[in-house]
Structure formats: structure tokens, C-alpha cells
Amino acid sequence: MARRPRKNKFRKKFTKLMQKKLVLLFAGIVLAFALLVGRITYINAFNGDKYSKIVLDQQQYQSRTIPFKRGDIVDRNGTKLATSQRVYNVILDAKVLLSDETKKAENIAATKKALKSYFQIKASAVDAIIADSPDSRYNILKKGISYDDAKAFEAAEKKNSKIKGVWLEEDYVRKYPYNTLACDVLGFSVSGNVGASGLEASYNSTLNGTDGRRYGYQNEDSAIENTVKEPINGNTIVTTIDANLQSIVEKHLEEFNQSQTEKAQEGMGFKNGAVIMMNPNTGEVLAMASSPTYDLNNPRDLSKYYTEEEITGMSSDDKIDALNELWRNFCVSDTFEPGSTIKPFTVATGLEIGALKGDETYYCGGSLQIEEWEIKCISYDNGGHGQQNLTQVMENSCNVALMQIGRAIGPEEFCKYQSIFGFGQYTGIDLPGEAVGILQSPDGMIKTDLATNSFGQNFNVTMLQLATGFCSLINGGDYYEPHLVKAIQDENGNVIQTIDPVLEKKTISKETSDKLKSYMYSVVQNGSGRYAQVEGYDIGGKTGTAEKLPRGENKNVVSFIGFAPVDDPQVVVYVVVDEPHVADQSHCSQSSYIAKNIFSQILPYMNIERMDSVAAE
Q1: Rg of the chain's alpha carbons, rounded to an integer?
Q2: d(CA 232, CA 66)
Q3: pLDDT, tens digit, for every residue of 304-360?
Q4: DSSP 516-546
Q5: What is the rounded CA–CA span in Å between residue 298 and residue 578?
Q6: Residue 303, by phi and psi: left (phi above 0), alpha (psi -120 to 50) or beta?
Q7: Residue 372 and residue 374: Cα distance in Å, rounded?
Q8: pLDDT greater than 70 at residue 427
Q9: Do 415 and 440 meet the contact criterion of CB atoms below 8 Å apart?
Q10: What share of the chain in percent tops pLDDT 70?
Q11: CA-to-CA separations, 176 to 83, 200, 257, 294, 462, in angstroms, rounded
């Protein structure tokens, strides 16, 4: 008879209750792990430096960060405008300094003497660390030591074995070789390689690299073996700026301001001045400057513009406001009423839509009645400009004629072409802090709005918007996106990215462009822009004056925008002077004089041929 198999008394079922317990246990482990990871993340984010120092203090082997070098910023010719200079931090390892009991006093004395001699570090700083933290391994005594001083110390250390516990940590400090040059464009960086403004901010991730690390491990024989992970240095950005052109612009802007400020008793000088220089055929910004400037190597220094007493009396908020005003790029971030520099745009609109044929004449009696308002022309006191054709309208900058042209265009087309020319929009410039200005909509534009808009009042633009749109007026109608960087290179100078000009749209026809160039050539030869003439060169342009709000206080923005040569424009120069300190700001020619000084120096530098040399051929 077959025997029935015995049941195993130790075999138990894996019950549902046991399954639930196992799931709960697993969930508890996962939760605990998540909490641990979260705690580690929190510690790293908020107390990373503190715990890093503790780790460094406890290490019995070497483990040091090797910092990356932030990339350079260079001009179009390779001139360094911003670079990172190698420096060293002086670190004291107190535990090593005190490790030899028999020679401790001698080592301390020799070390303090060397630190004083080479780095001007007081003995009391070392004494404080020895007293408070004798087992510490990482104490920063001084930052930013030069390469030469570091090498001199290392040489002395090799000769004197009693110098103990001091090592030099590699680091970099940002330097600007030309101090104030192109400060609005370059901007500056702060601690931790963070760009605070300008190109330093716009291209922060491109300029930054990745830190490396040197590891030292103890092997079985207690000897240290080193492993090095090399840093990855940042890339270099090649700008469209020409350092020589930038220097010329800043020189004439500052010299004019200084010379006039010295005559303040006579009511001379100005509140702010700014210049943009562009290549009209590519959208490249060749120079950009505004006054006042600041030292990029010491950007928080207010002493140039405020007395010691004024600075002492400032609150923290006052100082922040003063610095923000100093760092502000007027060319990009400030909006204003453009005045008569808008007139070429109004005439271009009329020609493009057929409201103008080019053979029109207008009568100016000094003012024009628009509903209940009498709007005056600059010629009001002299009885008006009389009968004039379009060339004379531009030469005389006649508001009465422009109001009639604006009326012929109408609000719909006027506003449409404001948009086509880029007003009220971001240009796309690779700089932070760009403003857009305020325009009126065609639905809300009444007759007086259209009249005043036609000659550049009651709407706002930026310098960059107007300069960019103007380039399209004189290059045949091509609107290029303005830009300040043309290439990106690796640390060895190899080009890894080329940034080509971006043609965004067509604004006007070549036929209209040619007519406008002719009109604006006459403005400089015979009209309001005659103070910008440079002997031997054909220059075209347009002056502008806009009364600031509130009206009636004799505060104006005066400007001149010009180009050369007229037949084949290669450069545009736009000068704006905010509140010139003269008796009658509305008739001020400061901007034209500044433009003349700039043109007279840049045209030979750019190898733009003189008219007399062409005639001689």
C-alpha cells in the first residue's frame, strides 16, 4: 500500500497579509531614501560651502578644485576687451603647520615671516587660526595673489623647509584692459562667474566652462596618488565692435562734454550723450557708447560723480539707484521722442504707398491749424518757409509740410509702416534690458496725434530702433537684425560658430531709398545738418529736436543721424544729446558737431575714399 507523502511542517503560505507588510516595508525604505536625498540636496544648496570646508579640514589627502578660465571677449580684430587673469588664494593648513611638535615654534615663526614678506599677511591672522582652529585644514588667508608673487613665494618655500602648511589655490579674476571702454556693451561679471550686465550677461553660459578637480588618494603604503580631471575653459566671443572706432566715439563724446561742462556758467554741457555706429549693410554694431561711463574693473565706484559727503549720506537704496543709473545703457534701454530724425521715415512711407510722387510742393506760413490747435513750425518767428519742394522740406526740417504729408498718408498706413520700420518692437539685439517704446494705435490716433507723430513727437523709440530702421532707409530697404557678436571661438582660437547677418524683411524699395539719400545729402550740404560736413567726404543725414515732457520748460533731446558715403553707405553714426545746457535747446547743434568730429576721424580709418581723390582720377 502506497504511503501518502508527509506535509512539511515548516512550509507556510505567502499570505496577502505578508505581501502587504513587504510592500509597506519597501515603501518605507524608498521614503527614507528620498528624505535622505532631499536632506543632502538641502545641505548642498544652503550649507555647501560650510560642509565643504569641514570636509577639506578633515582630509588626510589632497582634493582641490581646478577652476576653469572664463572665456575672453574680443573686438572684431582680436583685441581683448575682457579677459580672465590667473591669480592665487593663500590657504593655511593649520594641522600641517603644527604637526611637528619638536620644531613647531620654528615652523610657525618661519611661516608667519614668509606670509608677511610675500603677501603682506599679518602674523595675527595666523595666530587667530592656531588659537581657534588648530586642527583645521583649509583657511583662506588672502585672495587674488598675482602670478609673480605666487612664484616668488614658492621659490622661497623650496629653499626654506621650515615654511609649513601653506599652499596656493588657483583662481581667476575678471579684468578689463581698457577700463571704461565699451562699458555699456561689455558689462561686468560678479563673484562666481556670473555676468551682471551687457555681453557678460547675454553670453554667460558661452563664456563659462566647467571646473576640474585634482584628487589625491592614499594607497596601501599611505602614499598619495594623484588623479587630475582637467577643467574645461569657457569659449571666447568675437564682437562686431572695433576697439579703435569705439575709442574715437568715446573720445569725442567725452571731450565735448568735458569742454562744455567747464563752461557751465555760460549754460553749456549736457545731461547725457550717446552714440551708435553701425554697418548699414549687415546690422553689425561697430561702436556703442553713452555718457557717463564707469570703470569695469571697479563698477561700484561712485566717486567720479559724487562727493565723499554725498556718498556717505546715501542710503543703500540710494546707492543701488545711483549704480543702476550709471550701468544703464541709454542706447538700448531708454526711450524718447525722436523729433525730426523721424521725418525721413514719414517721407519714405508716403513714397512707398503712393501718397507722394516726389514732385510735390508745400507752402509753410509758420504754423498749421489742426482742429483747435495751432501747431508751429521752427520757422514760425520768421513767417514760415514759404513754398518748397521735398528736398527743401527736408533741408529746412519743415513741420508744416510734414503734417500735410502725414495727413495724406493717414493713420492706418502711418502706423503700419511704423511697425515695418521696427518701432514699438524688440530689435533682437544680443544685449539685456532692451526697451520697446510706446506707439499709438490707428484706432486711437486723432488728427493732432497724426500731425505730431509725422515730425517725431508724441511717441517713443530707442536709439537702437531708430538706427536700425534708418540703415534700411539708406541701404536699399534691407532691414537687418542688429547684433554685437559675430563668432564664437574655443580657447585655442578655433571658430566653433559663425553668426551671420540676419536679413529680417524689406522695408522700402531701392527707388525710395535712392530718393531719401539724395534728400539727406542736401540736408548736410545746404540745410540743418550743415554743421556735420567733413571736407572731402559726401555725408547725408538728418537733424532732430524733440521737446521733452512737460512741454514749455526748454528741455529737449537733440540728435543727428548721418551716413557716408552717400552713393554706397558703409557706416551710420547716430548721436543723441539729452538736455544740452544752452540758452535755446531747440536750436542747438551740439549733436551735429559731435558727429562731424567722429566722421572726420573714422572715415580715413575705414579707408573710405575722399571725393577729391575720386575727382582727381
Answers
A1: 34
A2: 10
A3: 889 999 999 999 999 999 999 999 999 999 999 999 999 999 999 999 999 999 999
A4: HHHHHHHHHHHSTTGGG--TT---EEEEEEE
A5: 26
A6: alpha
A7: 7
A8: yes
A9: yes
A10: 84
A11: 6, 12, 24, 12, 28
What's the order of all strands across the beta sheet hosting 540-547? 285-291, 270-278, 571-580, 556-564, 540-547
The percentage of the chain sitting over the pLDDT mark of 90, rounded to a whole number, equals 74
DSSP β-ladder status, 80-92 and 139-145: antiparallel
Residue type for position 125: A
| Residue 478 near residue 502, CB atoms below 8 Å | no
Q: What is the C-alpha to C-alpha distance for residues 53 and 139, in angstroms, rounded to an integer? A: 8
Torsion-angle region of 422 (φ positive above 0: left; ψ -120 to 50: alpha; else: beta)? left
Q: What is the dihedral of CA 490, 491, 494, 498, to 10 degrees?
A: 40
CB 201 within 8 A of CB 327: no
Q: Residue 140 to residues 47, 89, 100, 169, 454: CA-CA distances in angstroms?
A: 18, 7, 22, 9, 64
Interior CA angle at 333 toward 328 and 339, to 5°? 120
User: pLDDT (tens digit, 9 = 90+) per residue, 529-560?
Assistant: 999 999 999 999 999 998 888 787 788 899 99
Q: Which residues contact 340 (CB under 8 A, 6 or more apart)?
A: 397, 399, 455, 456, 528, 542, 543, 544, 545, 546
pLDDT digits (tens, 9 = 90+) for 372-395: 999 999 999 999 999 999 999 999
pLDDT tens digits, residue range 400-426?
999 999 999 999 999 999 999 999 999
